[in-house]
Structures are given as C-alpha cells and as structure tokens.
Write a structure and sequence with these properties.
heterodimer, A: 621 residues, alpha/beta, seven-stranded mixed β-sheet, two-stranded antiparallel ribbon, 27 helices, 59% helix, B: 95 residues, mainly beta, 13% helix, 38% strand
Amino acid sequence: MSSTHVMRLALVGNPNCGKTALFNLLTGSRQKVANYAGVTVERKEGRLLAPSGRQYAVLDLPGAYSFHASSLDEAVTRDLCRGFYPGEPAPDVLVCVVDATNLRLHLRFALEVRSLGRPMVVAVNMMDAARRRGIEIDLDILQRELGVPVVPTVAVRRDGAHALVELIDALAPTAQAVAKPLEDHAPTQESLHEETRRLLTLAVSQPRRTAALDDTLDRWLLHPVIGLATLAVVMFLMFQAVYAWATPVMDLIEAGTGAFGEWVARVLPEGPLSSLLVEGVIAGLGGVIVFLPQIVVLFAFILALEETGYLPRAAFLLDRLMSKAGLSGRSFIPLLSSFACAIPGIMATRSIQDPRDRLATIMVAPLMTCSARLPVYALLIGAFIPRQQVGIFNLQGLVLFSLYAAGIASALAVSWVMKKWRRDTGEHALMLELPAYRMPHARDLLIGLWERVLIFLKRVGGIILALTILLWVLLTFPAPPEGATQAAIEYSFAGRIGHAMTSVFAPLGFNWQICIALIPGLAAREVAVSSLATVYALQAVDDAAATDALTPIISSEWTLAMALSLLVWFIYAPQCLSTLATIRRETQSWKQVAIATGYLFGLAYLASLVTYQVAVALGAG
Amino acid sequence: MSEQLVTTGGALNLAELPHRTAATVESVEDRGAHDAIARRLRELGFVAGERVEVMAAGPFSAEPLLVQVGFTRFALRRSEASRVQVRTLPSVEAA
C-alpha cells in the first residue's frame, strides 16, 4: 500500500436509485460491512481499483429522500455528506446517483446534495432502462445547468461504470475543482422543485406514463384477490424450498461433522481434550452450522424478492391488517426475515421510520418461528406425533403448521395489546415507495447472500462457540467422587443446576434433563437438541446406550404431555441471548430488553403450564 | 400558467379522488404545526402542479392507496392522502 492519501468517494442518492448495485459493480467483492460508530446503521465500504492503478475508498451511504431526515439512515447520510459525522472523515467526492427513469424525484435530492457546496459528480444510472422507455436525457445540458460533472452509468452491465471511473480518475488530483460554491442559505422546498422542473424541461424529454409492464404487473399483483393469492403462493413456495432444497445439504453437513468428530476421537488420546473437541466443539457447532443451508435458501428468496421490487408490494397488500394489530406494512419484511433468524429480522427494522411501529416489530420478531426452533420441533414431532393422514393432510405436518401459526397469531395479539396499552392515537405514517419492477441481478444476489452467511458464521464462531465450551465445562466438572454409583452428570454443575430448576419447571412437566438443555438454549435455541443428546449420552452407563439416537430415548422416557408442553414452550422460547443482545443494540434500552424477556418468559411459562396440565387431565400424562 | 383554471368544480383531496382519474396537486395541507408527514409528502413530489393519479387500493378496507406522482408510485394511507388537495383535469394538461 502506498502512504499517499487514498481518495474517499461516497455514493449518495434516493432509495431505489440502484446505488448499491453500482457500489457492487465498482468494488466487487472488496467490501466491508459494519455499523457506523454508536448507531445501528449499516456501513458499507469497499475498494475501487481504477485501470490507472489508483485506489479509492468507496462508501455506500444509506438511501435518503431528503436531508431533512426522518429516519436514522437519513440522518447518517446527511451528517456524513456534510462532514459532521463523528469519527468519519468527510468524503473527498460525493457521487450522487440518480435513476434516469425517475429524475423528477431524484434530481430534487441531487440539488439538495449540490447545495452543500462539496465536490460532487452526478451518475445518471439505469440509462439503458430509460432509453428503452423512450426517455431522452441530454447529459451535456444537465451538466451545464447543474455545474457539476454528469456521467451515464448502467449498474447491471459489466462496463456500466466505465465513464464514472474515468471521470473520477481524471478528477483525482484536483478534486476541489468540481465543488460548487456553498449556497448562502439552505434551499427551500419550493426552490428545489422549481429548479428540478426547470432542469427537466431543459434536458429531458419523457413520455408521461410509467412503464406499461409495471402498470400491468401492479394491476395483477396488487389485485385484492389475485394479489393476495399470489402472495400466499409465493410464501408457500418459499417455505417449501427452505425445507425441501436445504435437506440434502443439511444431511451432508450432519454426516460430515459426525465423521469429523469420529476421526478426531480416533486420532486424539482419550481424555478431557478429546472430550471437549468431540462432544463440545464439533458436536455443538455442527448442530448449528447445519442450519446454514436453510438460512441461505430463505435469504436467497428474500433478496430476490427485494431486488425485483415485490416485497414493498407485499407490504402494500398487508398494511391494513398489520396496522390494525399495531404494526405496519413495513413490518412485513423484517418479520419475514425473522423466520430465518430474529437477528437479521430485528436489524431489518431499521427501514421502519416510525419509532412505535419499529419498536412493536422488534418486540414481536422473536415470535416468528426461526429456523433454530425447527430441530426442536422436528425431534419432538418425530418422536410423539403419529404419522397419520388427516383428510388430505399429514398429521405431523399439521402440527408443525399450527406451531408456526401459533407464533404468528401470538405476534399479532402481542402487538395489538401493546397498542392498546399505550392508548396510542397518534398518526403513524406509511408513505412507502413502490419501486419499478426489475430483474434481480446475480452479482447483487451473491454479494448479499455472502454478507448474510458471514454474519451467521461469525456468530457461530463467537458467542455460540464460547457457550458450547462453557456448557461442556458445566457438564463435565466436577468429576464424580470415588465410588460414585450414579452417572457422572448427576454430580456435575449442570446436573445440580438442572435438578434445582425442576422446582420451577415441574408444573410444566419438564424433567431435569430438559432443564439442563434449556440453559445452553440461552446461547442459541438450536443447541437445546444437541444438549439433550449430550445430557442423555453422558448420563448413559455404557457406550452402547450412549450411541443410541435421541428419538427412541425420549419417546420411551417422556410422556406425550411433556412433549406437547416443550413444543409450546418453544413457540415463545425467550431464551436466546443473541436476540436479546440485538434488541439491546437496536433499541439502546435495557428496559425494552427486560420487557421482551419478561413477556416472552411469561407467555412461554403460562402456555406450557396450561398445555401440560390440560394434557395430563385428558390422560396424556 | 394554471391560475385562470381555478374554478369551484374539481377541487377535492387525494383520498376522495376516483381511481385512474388524472388530477394535479394544488397543495399539501399541514395538520398542526410541524407536520412531518405533510413535509415528507412535499419532498416526495406532492407539490403544486404535479400530476397525480390513484391507481389502486389495498385489499382490506380499501387501504392503503397506490398513488402515482410523476414517475413514482407510493403506498399512502388514506389519512396521508387526504392532506393532498388535488384538482381533476378533464382535458387541460398540466404546465
């Protein structure tokens, strides 16, 4: 690396201007995703290597409609563009991206950016789409009137940023030259619109209408009946794919970690180290990584739906229902992500401007059945619910479906109660842009997916690894005394904790083994299954019993009432530390964390208590 | 410009505008001081003289409305749309 100053570019523009696609094109895979210091707004930075050999740091700023910020995202963009953001040097050049097919809206913001008086260039993006729609833009006139360099870009084409990179390279030594003088006072709304109109009249000739394709698609996809039916089919296909497509890969991962564990056990001498690696680390982490395929499939769907512009349409269709329950159409996307994992779901609530809607969405996101709960459901349903046909349905499938439905119904009920509790009569805005439909682009999908996978793997490597090791320690120490008659686990810390917990959880039908499994479930719910396996394995007197699968053990040792109670417990399952940590980070409030923990625990305890007692009364105990 | 077109006939708010009827924005009215929603509506392009059209409505209680202004489509709840005063234009083109 050279010691000279690396020029910093910042991409700025309206939401849906194709800014992120342009960012991906400029920087490729040389990206770093993190948060801005102190706030939970995603910060994306990448490196651009120009043909001249010069390097640039490129920052992808959150989309904004105006510097009069109405969300955290917009405030970050505003402060950064002005060079006020603490800890972030002011960008050397602002690259203002505008969508050629939506200049009326986007030029207004470009003018607002220009009024800052900072060096800037304007990238008129999606020039190909504009040409196809018969929109003619005279870039020379636009450049002359704006007084800053204007270049065309096509973010979805490999060489689509060619002109932009050339321009930046030419500017690099004298970046200051492109600055417009700072305007004496901030432009008024009226003056911005006046100027936008003037520019459009001078430089652009366009047909009146939006694309005919968009019009037709919206007629069908937003249709009260056909639109809702399509949404239902899309959701069904998505969940079908999550389970059907991911299973073969998951089986492979399971077999792989199993074989790896056996190999390590053979190579290492028997002892604490081998036990830690095989029973602790490999089994524990393997049990979590196995969900990666499901998360990848789910996010591939969500990203593709987002890229096409369909997700805001789904928000449109469901807004009324969700606002009745104290949420908003905008809550749909975060809640959908929460079916994979509540953490990205809660992080996605950043796109909800309204603070109340955002908080309500965060609070109910843990009620969406995340993929981590699936192994628990799968284990218990497989062991206790008979494979029976009920009409055209499979009884096991029906139970699984009703568990998901119970989560959704509870979420709506909880947010409705929260709304009533506050006696909230204020107005909460929707004002959601429905962008033009677009073909998703492979590069953007792959980069987006890769980011999600990294976030997930970092979590596996961090908190989950640490807690897996901690659990192993609790389960293994202290060693049983000389002449011990019972299994070693009975003497361990975990064994004692589990026995102590039964005084609270006995009314729910939980035995001490379940209680122990609930503790590591704090780290990640999915660990509950592997913990049960570990507990029963370590409890076994001989090796033959230890290698038995978990299913026959629990189906012979547990009653149906216990299984149902545990299933219901996991609908609410308050014990996910990473989710609680995410709520803390996103709300900056311990109070909200306490409320979330309290209500989830309360609901879980109550629902399980009722389930167990009713089931026992009906003779299932 | 459009001053001479101001008559008493076609003035109504956006929530009352029949679907797929061309109209132009007259103004966005503030509900109380510092109405952030009204301000944002203006920033999104609901300013005097712009063409607007209600394209569709949501499936439940006809909420929200799908509104096209300029080249952009927005989902607006009725309470938001009712801030926007519009005027239908049977044959007159916007300036």
